Amino acid sequence: MSRPPREIVAGVGFRHATQADEIVMLVREGLAAAGHAPDRLLALATAEDRAGESPLREAADALGCPVIGVSPEALRAVDACVPTRSARMEAERGIGSLAEAAALAGAGAGAVLILPRIASAGATLALAGVSA
Predict the structure, then answer these.
(1) Per residue in 2-42, pLDDT tens?
(2) 72-79 — which CB contacts under 8 Å span 24+ positions?
(3) 81 inside domain
(4) Owning domain of residue 92
């Protein structure tokens, strides 16, 4: 029996004090809410200037996937498809939601948002499906 393909990219935004376990919990919560098993997760995506931070790297290791750092240009390129609008994110990064934009840009051309932004105390998450 073959395994289902890894086809979901989790876009993640997080505050500097956020711990890896909070990110892992939010990703698992989001996957469950969208009706997907954890083994469908392809990658975690975030802004490239945050991609190397320890909490996100540790969360990716715990989830068994890589981290994708998304350039500011790629985040802005998908912003028209981002349904959530945060005044703070628009002021800081010129996009409505880091989690949604990172998920869509990280999943590539033709990606579809399958879970709009959800949040925990220190992180945000959105899921996008990779186009077949």
Answers:
(1) 555 679 999 999 999 999 999 999 999 999 999 999 999 99
(2) 72/47, 72/48, 74/105, 75/47, 75/101, 75/102, 75/105, 76/101, 77/105, 78/104, 78/105, 78/111
(3) yes
(4) 13-130
Q: What angle do CA 55, 77, 10 make, to 5 degrees?
A: 30
Amino acid at 42: L
> What domain count does the chain have?
1
In a domain, 86, yes or no: yes
Q: Which residue has the tokens 């934009």?
A: 101
pLDDT tens digits along 93-113: 999 999 999 999 999 999 999
Helix, strand and coil percent figures for the chain, each rounded to 5: 40, 25, 35
The CATH number for 79's domain is 3.30.420.180
Residues in the chain: 132
Q: Is the dihedral of CA 32, 89, 63, 132 positive or negative?
A: positive
Residue 8 belongs to some domain of the structure: no
In a domain, 6, yes or no: no
